[in-house]
From TrEMBL:
Keyword field contains Oxidoreductase: yes
Gene Ontology cellular-component terms listed: cytosol
InterPro entries, per the entry: AKR, AKR_Detox_Biosynth, NAD(P)_OxRdtase_dom_sf, NADP_OxRdtase_dom
Residue ranges occupied by any NADP-dependent oxidoreductase domain in the UniProt entry: 11-301
Record key words, sorted: Oxidoreductase
Name of the protein: Aldo/keto reductase
Lineage summary: Bacteria, Pseudomonadati, Pseudomonadota, Alphaproteobacteria, Acetobacterales
An annotated Gene Ontology molecular function: oxidoreductase activity
PANTHER family hit by this protein: NAD(P)-LINKED OXIDOREDUCTASE SUPERFAMILY PROTEIN, NADH-SPECIFIC METHYLGLYOXAL REDUCTASE-RELATED
SUPFAM superfamilies cross-referenced by the UniProt entry: NAD(P)-linked oxidoreductase (SSF51430)
Any matching Pfam family: Aldo_ket_red
Length: 317
């Protein structure tokens, strides 16, 4: 019943931080943006050919979706793709909580359909996966994926969708140099063998791998990410130094190399976009070529850092 194949971009644009209110302590990142600033980012992204935007209903409880919808009104709907998520843990008590959350997302985003709709977390795979089928049949959802699912949950979801003539068309998990659990658990090879696009999020570990932060200049106090990463920054120096050295040879910066690594591993990185200059980095990352030696050196240093960056919402894979 699938009429077309999902064509993943080389990089997707993340808007988790767009859900922050800008007030300290009210949001994960402590971010503050004006619509004009975000429109400048979107214009630069579209000019560069990056057109898949990833959000979720739970990013600021609708705030990220609403702001993104306003920013994208400037373009024809055919000029961009929308990726958003159903989060079981935030489901309402109505007769069909997934359909209710989708309706809210459609209203927030100002659109009639979602290009890629995810089940965000694997709470009761048997219960929730079947609810994707009527959404696919209605045309309000074009493609479906699962996020933060382990291998057996991905296989179970695929089986449920398969009974209705559909399939899991994408997988999205936390995947970075510091956190390769989807590799260790066989999820990446499973996706490769079945031509399922794998979307990697937190590739830059919320900024801990972008080279701007160090024990001397830690992540902004009062934010969740500072709490998660500031204590491990000393252990990351050898890795970020290597990222810088590889970048220097190719006219690239530290985050560009970390993103290029994720691309080289066969994944589509979802990169949080909060400044126009980040688009320049994506252009550099997508044109870089890392040698096998570069990749093995980076992975060895990442392993030697010996840190666990699994999010509080993530299960062991």
């Amino acid at each position: 019943m699938i009429t077309d194949t999902l064509k993943p971009p080389r990089v997707a644009l993340g808007t988790w931080a767009w859900g922050d209110s800008g007030e300290t302590g009210n949001g994960y990142f402590g971010s503050n943006f004006t619509q004009a600033e975000l429109e400048e980012i979107a214009d630069k992204a579209h000019t560069a050919g990056f057109t898949l935007w990833d959000t979720a209903m739970v990013y600021g409880m609708g705030r990220s979706e609403t702001i993104l919808g306003k920013v994208l009104k400037r373009y024809a709907r055919s000029d961009y793709q929308l990726s958003t998520k159903f989060t079981p843990q935030a489901a309402g008590a109505g007769g069909n909580p997934m359909e209710d959350m989708l309706k809210q997302s459609l209203a927030n985003l100002g659109t009639e359909y979602i290009d890629l709709y995810w089940i965000h977390n694997p709470a009761n795979v048997d219960r929730w996966t079947q609810h994707l089928v009527p959404l696919l049949k209605s045309g309000k959802v074009k493609h479906v994926g699962v996020s933060n699912h382990n291998l057996s949950e991905i296989e179970r979801a695929d089986g449920i969708l398969g009974e209705a003539g559909f399939r899991v068309e994408a997988v999205q998990n936390h995947y970075s140099l510091l956190y390769r659990s989807s590799d260790d658990a066989g999820i990446l090879s499973y996706c490769r063998n079945r031509s399922i696009p794998f979307f990697s999020y937190m590739v830059l570990e919320q900024g801990a791998l972008n080279g701007r932060y160090s024990p001397e200049t830690p992540l902004p106090e009062g934010t969740n990410r500072a709490q998660a990463y500031n204590s491990i920054l000393p252990q990351l120096k050898a890795l970020t130094d290597k990222l810088a050295a590889i970048g220097q040879k190719q006219g690239a910066e530290i985050p560009d190399v970390a993103i290029a690594w994720a691309i080289a591993k066969g994944t589509t990185p979802i990169i949080g976009i909060t400044r126009p200059s980040y688009i320049d980095g994506l252009v550099r990352a997508t044109s870089m070529s890392l040698s096998n030696e570069d990749i093995s050196d980076l992975e060895a240093l990442a392993g030697a850092a010996n840190v666990n960056t699994r999010g509080w919402w993530e299960q062991e894979m």
